[in-house]
Design a protein that fits this description.
three-stranded antiparallel sheet, 11 helices, alpha/beta, 8 strands, Rossmann fold, five-stranded parallel sheet
C-alpha cells in the first residue's frame, strides 16, 4: 500500500481547471495501482506584506478560488471520495513574497509540515501577474527535494477556433438531446415524428457537434447532473409559484409596496452552463430580473425588498450549484455573506 500526497499551488489561470482534473486523475490512477490513499493539498500563496489583513481583498479572492478548486476536485473524484482527501490553505501571509525563492520557501515549508512529496504545477500559475515565475520556481522546489511535475495541459488561445475536435460521445449526446427536444416540440410519438426527428437530429448533430459541445462529455457525470436537474426543476417551479403569489399580492395591494433596486454581486458558479442556468432561473422567478452578466458578476433588478432578500440569501444559487457540482458545493457562503465579508475588508 502506497500513499500519495500532492501539493498544488493555485492562482487564477485559464488552465487551472484542467490542472485540477489532471491532479485528481493522476491520484486516482495511483490509488488503483497501489491500493493506497491520496491527499491533495491546494494552496494559495499570498503576495501580502507582513502587515497582512486576513479580511483583505486578496484574502477573499484566495478563499473564493480555493472554494472553487475544491468543488472542481470533488466533482472529478465522484465515487472515490473515500480514498481521496482534499485540503486547502492560504500560505505566505506572514512573508514578503517577491522572488521565485520566496515562493519556493513557503511551498517547501508547507510540504514538509504536511509530509507532502509531490508538487504539481499549473502551467498558467503566475501569482505575480505577467512576471515569469514558473520555471525558476519549479527548479527551486525541485532542488529542495520535492518531486516536481507540470500538469500536461495546453494553454488556451486568445481567440479559440469556433470548431474543435469532437468525439463520438459528443456527437451521440447532441443527437440524443436534439431528438428528445424535437419529440417534445412535436407532442406525439407517431411514426412521422419519429422519422423526421431522426433526420432533424442527425442534421443538427453533423453541423454543430464540434461547436455546441466544446468540452468532453463524461457519461457518468452527465447522468448525475441530469438526475440532480430532475430534482431542481420541481424546486424551481415552486420558487416561480411562490414569486408569482408575492408579486400578485404587491400588485393588488392598495399601497403598491414596491421597492425596486438593482443589485450587483459575484455568483459562486464557474461554468458557462451553470451561469446561464442561474441567470435564467433568476429571470424566470417573478420579482427578479437578470439585467447583465459579466463573467461571474451578476446585475439583477429586484421589485421588492422581499425578492431581493431571497436572492441574496442564496437558496437559488445553492440549488444551481447542487445541479452542476453536487452536495459539497452547497456549503459555500451565500451572496449576502460574501458581500458582507467584502465590505468588512474595505
Amino acid at each position: 500500500m502506497t500513499d500519495l500526497r500532492l501539493l498544488i499551488p493555485v492562482s487564477e489561470s485559464v488552465t487551472l481547471r484542467n490542472t485540477v482534473a489532471y491532479a485528481v486523475r493522476h491520484a486516482l490512477e495511483r490509488t488503483d495501482e497501489n491500493d493506497g490513499s491520496v491527499a491533495i493539498h491546494f494552496v494559495y500563496p499570498l503576495t501580502e506584506r507582513p502587515t497582512f489583513d486576513p479580511e483583505s481583498e486578496e484574502a477573499e479572492t484566495a478563499h473564493t478560488l480555493l472554494d472553487r478548486v475544491t468543488v472542481w476536485a470533488q466533482e472529478d473524484i465522484e465515487d472515490d471520495a473515500n480514498t481521496v482527501t482534499i485540503e486547502t490553505a492560504v500560505i505566505g501571509a506572514e512573508e514578503y513574497l517577491f522572488s521565485p525563492g520566496d515562493y519556493a520557501n513557503v511551498l517547501v515549508q508547507y510540504a514538509r509540515n504536511h509530509d507532502l512529496d509531490v508538487a504539481v504545477f499549473d502551467p498558467g500559475f503566475s501569482p505575480l501577474g505577467t512576471t515569469p515565475l514558473l520555471p525558476p520556481l519549479e527548479a527551486e522546489v525541485q532542488n529542495a527535494g520535492l518531486d516536481v511535475r507540470e500538469a500536461p495541459v495546453q494553454r488556451e488561445r486568445r481567440s479559440p477556433p469556433l470548431a474543435r475536435r469532437g468525439t463520438v460521445t459528443q456527437f451521440l449526446t447532441l443527437f440524443g438531446v436534439s431528438y428528445v427536444f424535437y419529440l417534445l416540440l412535436g407532442g406525439s410519438f407517431e411514426t412521422y415524428n419519429l422519422v423526421t426527428g431522426v433526420i432533424s437530429a442527425g442534421v443538427v448533430s453533423v453541423a454543430l457537434w464540434r461547436v455546441s459541445l466544446t468540452s468532453p462529455v463524461r457519461p457518468v457525470r452527465a447522468a448525475k447532473q441530469l438526475g440532480r436537474l430532475a430534482l431542481y426543476l420541481p424546486y424551481l417551479v415552486g420558487e416561480i409559484a411562490k414569486g408569482s403569489v408575492h408579486v400578485a399580492y404587491v400588485v393588488l395591494h392598495p399601497d403598491l409596496p414596491i421597492d425596486p433596486e438593482v443589485t450587483e454581486f459575484d455568483a459562486a458558479v464557474w461554468s458557462t452552463l451553470s451561469i446561464t442556468t442561474y441567470a435564467n432561473s433568476i429571470t424566470l422567478t417573478p420579482g427578479t430580473l437578470t439585467v447583465n452578466v459579466s463573467q461571474r458578476r451578476f446585475t439583477v433588478h429586484s421589485l421588492t425588498s422581499t425578492t431581493r432578500e431571497d436572492l441574496l440569501d442564496g437558496a437559488l444559487e445553492r440549488a444551481v450549484r447542487f445541479v452542476f457540482y453536487g452536495r459539497a458545493a452547497m456549503d459555500i457562503p451565500s451572496p449576502r455573506d460574501r458581500m458582507n465579508d467584502e465590505d468588512e475588508s474595505q
